[in-house]
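Model: You mentioned two targets. I'll fold them one after the other.
Researcher: Yes, keep them separate.
Model: Target one:
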Amino acid sequence: MVDQNNLPIEQTTSCCVPVTLGVRHYLSARGRSIGRFAWIPAARATYVGLARRVDEVRLPSGWRLRRPSTLNIAYDEFVSKAWTPVLHALAGIEMSLGRVVM
């Protein structure tokens, strides 16, 4: 779609970085210690966890649009800002590639 000056109709959108905090609980041993500073990882380790994320949402602040009734191009402005909470549940298996690669 283009306006009266044959320019594309544009809108501005901004995006923010989400903030996530989570915990993970291993259901099996992750490996074994063979000294104070040496560690042998397990071939696989299963886990479950929960995470909480918060996103800041900002909607477009201004744009040109074509009015359906008259087909004229008009400038409109709408400002909206909010925080959106998200909750994750996760489960998985960590697999060691050390024996496969070597």
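Model: Target two:
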Amino acid sequence: MTQKTSAILLVLAAASQASPSFATLKILVAITGATGAIYAQRLLDNLNPREHDVRLVLSNYAQQVISMELPGGLVVPDGVQTHNVKSMNAPFASGSNPPDADGGDSLHDGHDGPHRPRLQRGRFAPRRDVVLKERKKLILVPRETPLSLVHVKNMELLLLAGATILPANPSFYSGAKTVTQIADTVVARVLDHLGIKNELAPRWNKEQE
């Protein structure tokens, strides 16, 4: 019996070798079919294609989830390049041209296994493998709850391989009044781990004595 972990965001990133003197990143945002499309939308809203090379890949089922959760559809900012999920001609499909960071909207594909971690399956597995073997930044945003031992073991292997597991757990001390503001508390942490400054959500203040 195979168990899968749903995630909302898969982000791949690293410092661009082409512009070592600038904070330019090559960032791949991969969206699969898990619920939580708003996280992907808000991440895209806050990645500036004029400052970073931003690429986007969507699984086939992601389109159905987006149609249910984002009535206006996914708004892709000008300058963001979209690639077919099946394409092996995309630059990030090879270790000779990896993204600096890879982030994803779902871990639904290829984060599964009945008796042992099996990370080589799914539409995004080759891209994820490239990022890990090239020692770039892989950020996974899982949504599944509760977690089975299989999920935890798969996450353990990904952590050992160098990935960052950033669960879609929003914070509530910010006093957020809208769903977007709640989602932003998670997206802000993704941006933090990409090294991108942001003011999306209030920071925790040290208690005043």
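Researcher: Noted. Anything on target two?
Model: The longest helix spans residues 179-194.
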